[in-house]
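Thread: quick sanity check before group meeting

JM: Hey all, I'm pulling together slides for Thursday and realized we never actually wrote out the predicted structure for the chain we discussed last week. Dropping the sequence here so it's in one place. If anyone has concerns about the input, flag it before I start.
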Amino acid sequence: MTSSVYRSPVALRDMFSANLRTLVRGQRSISQLSRQLGINRTQFNRYLSGESFPRPDVLARICDFFDIDARVLLEPIDSIRNTPPARPRSFLGDFVGAGIEFIAEEHFPTGFYRTSRRSFEAPDRFVLGLVHVCREGASTYVRGYDNAQAMAQAGLPHSPHAREFRGAVAEQDEGLTILATRRGALGGTMSYLRRVASFENNYWLGYAARTVPEGTRGIRVTRLVHEFLGTRIANAIAARRTGGLMAVSELPEFHHRLLQPSHAFR
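JM (edit): ok, ran it. Output follows.
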């Protein structure tokens, strides 16, 4: 027979808070750590002080971040042999590592986005598209399809298989960067986005730069808009039906305002 030891809620909270205080010693600041984990700073302080337990999904985020398992609730850190007390630092850990994991939902929600930008190949036209933002583990990704008409004009294959692109999202101090490419590392773009004031707080504005040599026909950098549509498939289908390669006058009103078509990008 196996014996079990009863641990009161107070004892569990005390153990977790002691372990969490040990784990955070290697972090630059509690505020930054809270943002990376997507946890309210006040709530995180309650975990540190032993006043509260995290929900299971929040506990999973904390465990993934520190490369620890749920025994962090039951045993002192030093006795958990299969994991270190803190995530090891890689060569780029202090530079980009903090930005590529645990992007908070409120900073860039999971779901569908309507996008707009000037066409790289035909600068007198604009592309209204659709992307999906998803999460897998601690990472945030985007997926979408380049416009078929624009790719055909550029002499590129334009089947759905050839047009699909995927990318990774990284958080910066004042915005987000997205590095995306089509299958086979073809047709890459680097985008920067920052949330802008709007009625529903659902717009991001920045720019997209395609990874092509200088002197390539068309343009290489242009303004970019992302409009969050939510998670409903019906919203995505409606946006897809109205998208495509179009004249500036056909752009949705707020997209037109943010893209500033008559002002050169700087």
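AS: nice. The mean pLDDT is 84. The radius of gyration is 23 Å.
JM: adding both to the slides.
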